[in-house]
Amino acid sequence: MKNLLIPFDFSDVSMNALDYAVKFAARCEKASISLLYISKTKLEKDKENELKNKFEALLQKHEKPNAPVINYNFGVGNFSDAIIDAHSSLDIDLVLMGTSGAEKEAESPVTRTSKLVLEVDLPVLVIPVNYKLFRLEKILLALGEDVMHDTSTLNLLLDVSSRFKAEVDVLTVSRNPENAGYSEADEANERTLQYYLEMFYSHHSFAENEDILQGIDDYIKKHEVDLLSIMPKTHAKISTPSKGKLTMEVILKSEIPVLVLD
């Protein structure tokens, strides 16, 4: 994992994502960070020059020994499409994006970040704006009750866990007490987890809670989890894709970074 992409607009949200990315990239040899400023229409020359000056000042601030290389690019048009284009043209391995979460009184609890995660079939690491700590010792993979639909996405989780020597716990939260426990799907997932995650896989826990998100949050706080990882079915190809309601809730409400394996 060498090339990271951050949608960037100089907001507190994107600045915080950059701070996290710099520390994250320190574990990735010869890593580079691409900042992508996206505008709906082509920028006027004066505005583009103004932004270039701001980018140059920002890059100079981050020029330190052994620091990752940071560059900037401009994208035009639809936000998600611009990221997809940059992902391809810049050979990006992982998109990092900050989020402010949903406002409590918002009529439609949708943010640009949560919308992006649902629209693009790409791995995304979401960083909450209020998350200032950088530590990556324990990762929680939240799994559903079905057999994993795309096990190849676990390669990224292995990459992250191995770089940081992080332990990976797995949690399945069931709304129905009758479904809680070990099933044939769980047994199949267990074999997959052991194969893909190797020595970094710790154990698989099961919990009962009518509110799945609350069940995940309870585990995170009890076990001091540093990173939550999810495998949404919004872009599933071998099973029926989901509408992504739970995925959106996780992105909007999580207080720790979320790695979306897509």
From TrEMBL:
InterPro entries named among the record's database cross-references: UspA (IPR006016)
Gene3D superfamilies: 3.40.50.12370
Record domain UspA: where: 1-128
Pfam families reported in the protein's UniProt record: Usp
Family: Belongs to the universal stress protein A family.
Full protein name: Universal stress protein
Originating organism: Salegentibacter maritimus
Lineage: Bacteria, Pseudomonadati, Bacteroidota, Flavobacteriia, Flavobacteriales
